[in-house]
Amino acid sequence: MGDVWTTVGDQQLSLSNLDKVLFPEAGWTKAEVINYYVQIAPTLLPHIVDRAVTRIRFPDGVGELAMQFYEKNLPPGCPDWVGRQQVRTSDGVVSYVTADNAATLVYLANLAALELHVPQWSIGSATPDTDGVITLPGKEPAEADPLADRIVVDCDPGPGITMIDNARAAMIIAAELAGDGLIPVAKTSGNKGLQVSAAIAPAPCEDARAYVQAVASRLSRRHKELFVVQVAKAARANRIFLDYNQNMAARNTIAPYSLRARPHPRVATPLTWDEVAAVDDPTALQFSPEDVLARVTEHGDLAEDLLITDPPALPDIGRN
Questions:
Q1: SS3 string of 236-269?
Q2: DSSP label at 320?
Q3: 46-83 residue pLDDT tens
Q4: Domain assignment of residue 315, yes or no
Q5: Cβ partners under 8 Å of residue 76, min gap 6
Q6: How far are the Cα atoms of 188, 250, 294 from residue 314, in angstroms, in the given order?
Q7: How many domains does the chain have?
Q8: Which of 83, 217, 241, 275 has the highest Cβ tally under 10 A?
Q9: Is 316 contained in some domain?
């Protein structure tokens, strides 16, 4: 199939190789990837707007030996209308894509950027320098630093852990966050685990990371049979690693409603707590793009509590 011109919002885009299969086991094509992102855009975009978007691209589709690469900088030839923000990192200045419209999602999907990852901080919370560059926080906080407006507890399951265990873990984490005055939101990672997030009033990224580390540490003490905070893989058998470092300014997390590059297309899917509590099947909570679009039609945005306009302050970390 040759290139096809289309209009998305106010932008004209040229789409290529729409019949290219990107999920071979499912026969899912680039056209279907683009169609999903067009339909989910109104629900997905509020969760990534004003954030630096890291993409994972699969130019030849998903597969065990398929080429994939993280892309942080603007793609070569990126059109002027695609949003961007320069960020000074330990590796130099990166020109990130920003996404505030469906046309940008389509542009990225046309490049086989299947996965969209964003940090816990927002661009608008930082003060750029005279060249328009914002700087990630260093060891010492600065007034110009970007601020976190959400925290995430990333449940990384070790060998022997099933979705039943993940669901139990998420309920325990949610109770802990709620006890600290936060409003927990659950979502699948679209892979093997679950993530529990919450909106917070803007706070230094290191403070957010320290809070989640404190939560992880106290949970691992209380539930030694379920949680670990050690990075070493040898410690993770039949345990769930609570990855608090996803809250570092330099890290990013799969965005709600992003596709994941699994053999069959899966989506990082927000959940109700009733769904989490009801899990009794090790293979539960796997959602296709079609499932997710139907869920949004029925329930709206189940992650909307991450977008509240007056979120609670980051809790104190002194609780045992």
A1: CCCCEEEEHHHHCCCCCEECCCCEECCCCCEECC
A2: -
A3: 999 999 999 999 999 998 888 999 999 999 999 999 99
A4: no
A5: none
A6: 24, 19, 34
A7: 1
A8: 241
A9: no
